[in-house]
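Example 3.2
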Amino acid sequence: MAEHSATLSSDGLDDLLSGSAAEKRSLAKWYATAKLALARNRPLTTATSPHPGRHHTEELASAELDALRSVGAFKGHVLVSADNDPLIRSQAQYMALLEESLSAAEAAKLLRVDVSRVRQRLRERSLFGLEYEGTWRLPRFQFERRLVIPGLAQILKALPPDLFPLDVVDWFLLPDPELQSDRDVSPLSPREWLLSGRAIETVARLARDLTRG
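Structure, written as tokens:
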């Protein structure tokens, strides 16, 4: 199956969403904020929406609008209208995650392997991916330079398999009080801990604790 980054052209915004202007603004603001957090490997739950006066939907660049459309942003009516409603925020974050993630072909190029190897690793849960409209999207938190972060396969197999993708991303990126040694000024995230070369089992234990919970 061919892997690609879906992008769609469009003639305007008015035909995209039947909701109110406030809904459009809220979706666009949270989407822009989530994309920025993901690009920097920062947790989504601590990302706050930009200033209300910035990044209104009508001010978004055409590339950002195409990105929103490519992941289904405007296919249906958003049922809530509050600017900071968690449902709108989660929708926007999920769309940003799809947009910021790599396709299987892009991940294969990054890792210098055949795309069939990437798909195999997705099946065996040694890479984390989201299946969207018949293609795979692989969030960037699991890669560093041209490598997979140490211990990823072990950690993914210890995590509950039914975790929502946004929760998986945040779990890897949020600092954990259990991941701090005497030499650390503050707790590390699982991703930071693994990249520092410390014990993989420490993070695997935290993942298993989620399963037991």
